[in-house]
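Dear colleagues,

As part of the handover before I leave the project, I'm documenting each prediction I ran so the next person doesn't have to rerun anything. This entry is a single chain, and its sequence is reproduced below.
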Amino acid sequence: MKRFKAVIFDMDGLLLDTERQALESFNRVCDHLGLGNQEHVFAKCIGANREAGWKALEDGLKAKVDIKTFANAWDALHTQSTEEQPIPLKAGVFELLDYIASHGVPCAIATSTSTERATQKLAKTGLLDRFAAITCGDHVSRSKPFPDIYLRAATVMQADPRECLALEDSENGVRAAVGAGMTVVQVPDLLQPSPELRALGHIVLESLHAVRAHRF
């Protein structure tokens, strides 16, 4: 761990167990609108910012429903669920952060979520003060899988991307971090990496506990 100048974390699906909440809200809207199972569309939204997520919805659902109606209903339902319920953390979050801190390596966030929402979520879960910097989807023009957000996070941390460790759960995020030239660990959440994704050569581990035990 000491060989890295910074460790850069994705947020949703990696630190926060929120992707299941998002999928539940997505499926409830699909059921209400009579769309059937559209989880393949949801998968395209994972790791994407608002604009890229909108395009994924348009590409997958525009022939079946008014996209604005769908997106507004999903956003409202998901926001309600995250405000009314505690935001669950992934197992091993604090242990991993403590381990990294014990090696004197600073941590940052690189999330496609907007700054306002990301800050709220991190504050609500007691994680906000654990990160030296937060780079969000509204800080860059191109969303994951483009590398922009990771390159910006490295710049903010004054670190060469090649000396950064990136932790991700989604395909879009992995592609972004690999494209930035970082050492990448994927801890899959809802979806396991495809053979095509594994061909990128990044590290795949089953949990954040496994990251702490891994020899880099």
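The first strand starts at residue 6 and ends at 9. Residues 27 and 39 are 8 Å apart (CA to CA).

All the best with the project,
I.
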